[in-house]
Design goal:
globular; alpha/beta; TIM Barrel; single chain
């Protein structure tokens, strides 16, 4: 599938500048409902022909957006892709919600993304197969912060466990012939940006896209990536900074982090002019 497509969630005031340096756009449904400026921004992106993923906001809200309301927003925005409702680390409930979506919302336009959930490797495998074979989603997503990663890769730095845990999980799923290489895959979020340097070889051609606000949040906090990335992570979520005043932003730090992130991921400089 070539280079991994990258999206970075960003405050509204710098959205278009960040958009020039990314490959597609990533929207949070609860902000579409709550914030008219945010909604207008993404409606313009769709009209411009940008590829857009609409997230069910589970990471921000700790539970998926209510299905009926989510379906309405998918129909209104008409994103390229949307993430069907899931349940954090709960494979059984995620599979139930996927079955419910297929049964009751099969006419909703757009391509479906199913998120793999679970607390053990077996649960993750079962959920993966359910997304792939039963829900027949168009893309499969794997998150950055499963608690399973801490069990899988023991390390005093939890961010290193998350990073190496996802790398190991993908390797294990490949080894056990679970990965459907004919289907695109999405990597949800980021603990440490240097993780994505692991996916540059041909074994990971099934990785289609990723989203993360990591370079944006750290730039807003005055933190710039080093040549080896980061070894800790700011806990603040981007949606809490969506209306930050542009006068309080050092855009050079944000753009520097975006450039380095693209290098870690694809060995690329940004797609736009960084100056």
């Amino acid at each position: 599938m070539g280079k991994i497509k990258i999206a970075h969630e960003a405050p509204i005031d710098i959205f278009e500048e960040v958009q020039r340096l990314t490959d597609y756009d990533y929207a949070l449904v609860h902000l579409l409902e709550q914030n008219p400026r945010y909604r207008d921004t993404f409606e313009r992106a769709v009209k411009k022909g940008r590829e857009v993923i609409l997230d069910n906001s589970i990471f921000e809200l700790e539970e998926a957006f209510e299905a009926d309301r989510f379906a309405l927003w998918v129909e209104r925005l008409k994103p390229t892709w949307y993430i069907i409702p899931d349940a954090l680390e709960n494979a059984e409930k995620t599979m139930e919600q996927a079955a419910n979506w297929i049964k009751n919302y099969s006419e909703v336009p757009g391509k479906r993304i199913g998120v793999v959930q679970g607390k053990t490797y077996q649960e993750i495998k079962d959920c993966y197969r359910a997304m792939d074979e039963l829900a027949k989603v168009d893309m499969i997503a794997i998150s950055f912060d499963y608690s399973y990663y801490r069990d899988s890769v023991s390390h005093p730095n939890k961010y290193v466990s998350w990073m190496l845990g996802r790398v190991k999980l993908l390797g294990d799923l490949l080894r056990d012939n679970v990965i459907n290489k004919d289907k695109p895959h999405h990597l949800l979020g980021c603990g440490l940006p240097q993780e994505f340097s692991f996916y540059k070889n041909a074994n990971y051609k099934f990785l289609y896209s990723l989203d993360t606000s990591n370079p944006i949040v750290h730039g807003l906090k005055g933190i710039t990536y080093g040549s080896d990335g980061l070894w800790s992570k700011e806990s603040q979520k981007l949606h809490e900074l969506i209306d930050v005043d542009i006068d309080k932003i050092d855009i050079s730090l944000v753009l520097n982090n975006i450039q380095k992130f693209r290098w870690f991921t694809n060995g690329q400089t940004p797609v736009g002019n960084i100056l």
